[in-house]
Every structure is written in structure tokens, then in C-alpha cells.
Specification:
With 310 residues, the protein is an alpha/beta fold. The chain has 2 domains: 2-160, Rossmann fold, CATH 3.40.50.10740; 166-309, LD-carboxypeptidase A C-terminal domain-like (Glucose Oxidase, domain 1, 3-Layer(bba) Sandwich). Helix content is 26%, strand content 21%. The protein is built from 9 helices and 14 strands. Helix 7 (192-197) links the parallel strand 8 and strand 9 (211-217). The radius of gyration is 18 Å and the shape is globular. The relative contact order is 0.16.
């Protein structure tokens, strides 16, 4: 099914970016800084009609987010869509979206964290690649400015398209190779909790022959262990061609002395595999991160510690 995926069309300065809030509400000052940053990059911006709604820890009640996503994809004057932030709520309305509308108006759709559920659904139901990367009221709206590594690993894909890029971790933060080898396939996954949340539904991406990437924030060691075990019991690790473990922010920082390390859990739960397994990849909720095009063909090479987009 993923063989039919459409890539998104690159954009250039002068294009119009729609800003949407499909998950939790943002901080006003961060949104303003993020919009100013996009304007300095030479882009025009337009805010979705319901971007400023608030429903406790969500932006809206569901219909508003659906309306904004349909508006952004179908609007003839919008060239790309970037989310304000993640948070919570996107799985609530996956079954309310018009995926034919999205499929017929392919545009770059950018976000991560809770946005992962939308990206998996858009991949499986609209056959469209998306970009897991920096958001307007997070990295772009950071009071200290966007991290140079993050910026350098974001715009080249959005402005030049997917293909030919070779990613390395920052020199001072090397990748940990847990299993050697070379693996190729389409990149699927994102935020671990969200991918886990949609397992068993039609929105869960196909795993066979693909490269699975996972990252998360605020999940304790036992939750990581439990979710990884669920993936093993579902046969996921028997199907994939490679596993990329990104940043797991605030997961091991408060670990107890008896908690297993990530390497120990992967060894015990995933086991010995014929494909490469990377850990500590600069992708996820950290300030310094690479943007990953979900659905793209990639090659993992353990010897060079690289992720290449084919």
C-alpha cells in the first residue's frame, strides 16, 4: 500500500504557510515569535479560523480541528501546513477527516508529538508523506531561537524535497548502534505513545519491510518497556527492516536504581535481529533534532551511523 505514497511538493520563500492547532493550545508569545521567524525566512502565514479556540487541554472540541485541517488542505492559497504544537487530542477525530480531500490536495504537513496520529492516518488513508519536524509555537517560537542543527535539518527537506539528504547525529552526540548492518524501507512511526495508541486500527502504518522510528517524552521506564513488549507481541519486530530510537526526554532522567537502561530493555525485549538498530538518534522532543519525512524511502547504515533519504 505504501508503494503508492505521494511525496509533498517543496516550497520556497514567498509561499504561504497555514498555521493550525490540531492538538493542545499554544502559548501566545511562542506563536508570535514563531510567526515572526517564518516571516524572516521570507514566508507568508495565515492562521486557521479556529486556531485560537480552547477546550481545557485541547484547542477545540474536535469539529473545529477537523474544519481547520480541511480548510488548510483545500485552500488554493495555502502551500504548506505547519502545526503550532502537539499535546493531546488528535486520535479523537481521526475517523472524522475527509482523506479523499487531503489526498487530492497534497501539501507538506509538518508536526510531531501528538501530531503523529494525524501523520499516520494521512499516510495510510490519504497515501501522502508528511514531515515530522519543528513546529511554530515550539522550536520556531523558542525564546532563544531555533537550534542551528534543527534549522539545518529542517528547511533543506521542506524547500528541496525528499531525496539525497544524509543525516548524521551532532558530532558530540553520537548514535548508539545496538545492532549492526544496513536496512532499507519506508520510514514509519513517530511518537511512541501515539503509534502505540493507534495499533489495531486502520490508521496504524504497515510495518513489513519498513524502517520504524520511535521517540517520546515523559514516559517512565516501565511504560517504555510495556509498549516495546506490546510491539514484540504484535510481531512488529519480525517484520521491519530497521529500528531507530530517537530522544526519550524525561524518561530516564528520574529513573530508579532498579530501572533497566534503554539498551537492556531493547536487548531483552527486541532481542537479536538481522537489521540495524540505532538509539540516541537526534530526533524527537529535544531542542536539537532532525526532521524526518514519514513515508520516505531511507537507508540506515550502522557502519557510517547515517540515515540517508533515497
Amino acid at each position: 500500500m505504501l508503494e503508492k505514497l505521494q511525496s509533498f511538493k517543496p516550497i520556497q520563500p514567498g509561499a504561504t504557510i497555514a498555521i493550525v492547532s490540531p492538538a493542545s493550545h499554544y502559548k501566545e508569545e511562542k506563536l508570535k515569535r514563531g510567526i515572526d521567524y517564518l516571516h524572516r525566512r521570507g514566508y507568508k502565514t495565515v492562521l486557521a479560523p479556529n486556531h485560537d479556540k480552547k477546550n481545557k487541554y485541547l484547542t477545540g472540541h474536535g469539529p473545529e480541528q477537523v474544519e481547520d485541517l480541511h480548510w488548510a488542505f483545500s485552500h488554493p492559497g495555502v502551500d504548506a501546513i505547519i502545526c503550532t504544537r502537539g499535546g493531546y487530542g488528535t486520535p479523537r477525530y481521526l475517523d472524522k477527516l475527509d482523506y479523499d480531500l487531503i489526498k487530492n490536495h497534497p501539501k507538506p504537513f509538518v508536526g510531531y508529538s501528538d501530531i503523529t496520529a494525524l501523520q499516520c492516518a494521512i499516510m495510510t488513508q490519504a497515501q501522502l508523506m508528511t514531515l515530522s519536524g519543528a513546529m511554530v509555537a515550539v522550536e520556531m517560537g523558542d525564546e532563544n531561537g531555533i537550534d542551528p542543527y534543527t534549522e539545518a535539518h529542517f528547511w533543506p527537506i521542506l524547500e528541496n524535497g525528499v531525496g539525497g539528504q544524509v543525516y548524521h547525529n551532532p558530532e558530540e552526540e553520537p548514535i548508539t548502534v545496538l545492532s549492526p548492518g544496513v536496512g532499507e524501507g519506508r520510514l514509519v512511526g513517530g511518537c511512541f505513545a501515539l503509534v502505540n495508541n493507534i495499533m489495531g486500527t486502520k490508521y496504524f502504518p504497515p510495518m513489513a519491510g519498513n524502517i520504524l522510528v520511535l521517540e517520546d517524552i515523559g514516559e517512565n521506564v516501565q511504560h517504555f518497556d510495556r509498549m516495546l513488549t506490546q510491539f514484540r507481541l504484535a510481531g512488529i519486530f519480525d517484520q521491519i527492516n530497521g529500528l531507530i530510537l530517537g530522544q526519550f526526554i524525561d524518561c530516564w532522567e528520574n529513573a530508579e536504581p532498579d530501572d533497566f537502561s534503554m539498551e537492556e530493555i531493547v536487548r531483552d525485549v527486541v532481542g537479536k535481529r538481522h537489521y540495524p538498530i540505532f538509539a540516541n538518534v537526534a530526533y524527537g522532543h529535544g531542542r536539537r533534532k532532525m526532521a524526518l519525512p514519514l513515508g520516505a524511502q531511507v537507508r540506515m547504515d550502522a557502519e557510517s551511523q547515517t540515515i540517508a533519504f533515497l
